[in-house]
Amino acid sequence: MGPDPFKDPAAFGMVTAPRVVLAAAAVLVGRPYPLAALVLLLPLGPWRFTEGFATVDLSWLLPRQGVKIFPLLPTSPFIIWYAYLTGRRLSRVWPAPAAFCLVTCVGVSVVLVMGGDLALWVSMVTALVGTYLVPYLLGLLRRRLLQQRRQTRLSVAAQARLRERARIARDMHDSLGHDLALIAVRAAGLELAPGLDPAQVKAAGELRLAAADATERLRHIIGLLREDSDPPPLSPVDEPVVGPVDGDVAELVWRARDSGMSITLDLAPGPVPGLARAVVQEGITNAAKHAPGAAVQVSVSPYRVAVRNGPPRSRPTALSGGLGLAGLRERVRLAGGTLTAGPAGDGFELAVTLPLTGEEDPLHSGVNRRPDARRSGA
């Protein structure tokens, strides 16, 4: 791109040496500041129209033959690379158009100095588009695609966190909420037991109130965990069951009876639905919290699980939150069943109907809901 240093050392020092210094400066600033490198390389831009990517014969339109399309110089690949990096890395918008206006002014000045005929304008426009504009747009497109990919990855991570929060909330409700409800039942039984002195009766009452207060705090914590986390599924459709389901149901009933609840179990022969334990646990917990002292009847068959309680014998201390039934309703829906929860006679009933294994959902995934049914607090 300059004089031969052996034949004309003086011209080499005047022309080529400054170009080398300019290119070295562009290399130094090009990685962190590609737009600055693009401006530094302006004197080495595609302003000589002797060689090009293609040569077109426009003699039918222009007096000059052999018009160069997309002129190329030895420095053109480096300029194209820095133009791509400008679009790829530059976060602000206005510096690139300002630099491209400067580049356009230089190109227009070069064409005017060279005579300004139409062939030169064609070469200059293709040089600007091919060397500066197209690489910049490709870099900009790459940056937008990477940003979109990053946003997708962050969204997937956020959804995973929401699912985990929902799972933790469900586990806390199913385990801690159930145990606290049984503790309150045991404390209520001790409070009414004969032979205790007033101090012991008072202590049992305080224990019952403390269990109810802990249940309320747990409900608030679960609400915080499940905030904005309802859209993701709370559990897979085919939830794995550890151990015999009927044994789990019988153990739940036995623990509730041992804590002082009046509860009976009607276990029909045949396979037990995988969600039976969750349904029975939710029903027993609701009965213990919202109908203290009521008789509870648990019915489990291959296609239906129901927990029904009578009227409460004392005033309930827990507030209705609805979080437990909301999660259970979603799990039942994913399993292709229906859930109804509402008044039944003088008490309350939670009932879940599930299709048999390998059978199509006869109730269309839970859309047939009893009109008078409502959610109970959990």
From TrEMBL:
Q: Which GO terms describe its molecular function?
A: ATP binding; phosphorelay sensor kinase activity; protein dimerization activity
Compositional bias annotation for Basic and acidic residues: 369-378
- Name all Signal transduction histidine kinase subgroup 3 dimerisation and phosphoacceptor domain ranges: 164-228
The UniProt catalytic activity note for this protein reads: ATP + protein L-histidine = ADP + protein N-phospho-L-histidine
Write out the ranges of the annotated region (Disordered).
358-378
Write the record's keywords in alphabetical order, separated by commas: ATP-binding, Kinase, Membrane, Nucleotide-binding, Phosphoprotein, Transferase, Transmembrane, Transmembrane helix, Two-component regulatory system
Give the InterPro entries listed for this entry: HATPase_C_sf, Sensor_HK_TwoCompSys, Sig_transdc_His_kin_sub3_dim/P
* Protein name according to UniProt: histidine kinase
Lineage of the species this protein comes from: Bacteria, Bacillati, Actinomycetota, Actinomycetes, Streptosporangiales
